[in-house]
Amino acid sequence: MSIHSSKIHEFVNLQRQLFSAFSQGYPQANDFTSLLNFPRSGAVVVDGQRWNFAKHGLGLRFVREHPVPQLVVDMHDQFGDCVKVDWWRLSLFLESMGVAIERLEAEQAVLEYDRFSQ
Question: Euclidean distance between the first and final Cα of the chain, in Å?
Answer without folding.
Answer: 14
